[in-house]
Amino acid sequence: MKGSVFRKKSIQDLIAATNGEKSLQRELGAFDLTLLGIGAIIGTGIFVLTGTGAVTAGPGLTVSFVVAALACLFAALSYAEFASSVPVSGSVYTFTYATMGELLAFIIGWDLILEYMLAVSAVSVGWSGYFQSFLSGLGIHLPVALTAAPGAVKGTFTIFNLPAFVIVLAITYLLYLGIRESKRVNNIMVILKVLVVLLFIAVAAVYVKPDNWQPFMPMGFGGVFSAAALVFFAFIGFDAVSSAAEETKNPGKDLPKGIIFSLLACTILYVTVSAIMTGVVPFAQFAGVDHPVSLVLQSAGQNWVAGIIDIGAVLGMTTVMLVMLYGQTRVMFAMSRDGLVPGSLSKVHPKHKTPYVATWFFGIMSALLGSLVPLDELAKLVNIGTLSAFVLISVAVIVLRKKQPDLPRAFKCPGVPVIPGLAILFCLFLIFNLGWVTIVRFLVWLLIGLAIYFLYSRKHSKLNQ
């Protein structure tokens, strides 16, 4: 199997690697992991995409969130089984390496680069918009040329999105300092932004007019499913929890709790917020609005709460970028430790115990993308990358149950192969609702990855030594 592209890394070897020189510090418990998941999930989805989803699905947006959540829940159960059984950095990349071989593992790792890095870049642009709005309220205005990427605003000369660049570098520095410091900052910001969302629910609920919910699905099920494929972006992030497996104190018990609890909590908040939004403001009025939650409160005459919501949006997007960049660096750390990408990316800082080269490399790349490139189709590309990862992890659970039935499993996905099979069907359904242009772009990205694997990774793989 030495030269085979389907050579596998044994689970025993994967776990043994976590005790070597290139190992990470175990700092996270179930509560930390749950907040890590909520930190990654509640952000752009609830503060921005709810408006776009409402225009597509009408009040039926609540059903769209449930459909997207089901796809995530079925996949989450598969993630929980793998993450608790193979508590190693790398998320679905590592799990695929152990079950379906090196080539597919590399491809899914390459896929995760697309998901995490572009997600950080996209969210940094949204963060910049809210932050500039907040500064404007204080009478502070940045030079127009430094407010957006070149060509991002029609009719306006812009060259660089300075706030987007600075926030990603600040988050990169925090991750460089260590998981303990990152955990503390994330936990505080997540608690604050959940309180902001609860404040919105409490204030806006009294202004709901049930007549605004009629017709419930103005575009039919087609609109609901199209919105589900779009707002799936709102759930991206819970899978990043599995990237923290190697830094979890008790992965067998804590990882499944962190993954499932964060997903369920966010689903309840999403459905509640979308129902209130479309009940207060007729869905058609959300067209072209990039701050739908604030718009609802402004329509209700609660401008003071709208200002607080803007602060919550800034906090929400900050934690999304923090967790997504964290997941990115841990996947690259694992791939580097396996020899599939350059070894420098798995260098661990002697003091901070973090993969500092990978952290700074991908932090700078994400900062430059967000500040220099208009990313109008980014949400769809990020979605298709994530959905593909969910398909593979679900297949991997079925394969491992058949090939290694006696493997110790701290958590077992129920109903195998039915539950993973449902995850596969739901995810493929959402992929085809993203459109052929997005699918073609994704295939081009995968072809580039294949070229890198056969020209570099296959030869330098540790299993090839």
UniProtKB/TrEMBL annotation:
The lineage of its organism: Bacteria, Bacillati, Bacillota, Bacilli, Bacillales. Keywords: Membrane, Transmembrane, Transmembrane helix, Transport. The keyword Membrane applies. It is a multi-pass membrane protein. It is found in: Membrane. The chain crosses the membrane at residues 28-49, 61-80, 92-113, 134-153, 159-178, 190-208, 220-238, 259-284, 304-327, 356-375, 381-401, 413-432, 438-456. InterPro entries: AA/rel_permease1, AA_transporter. This is Branched-chain amino acid transporter BcaP. The gene is bcaP.
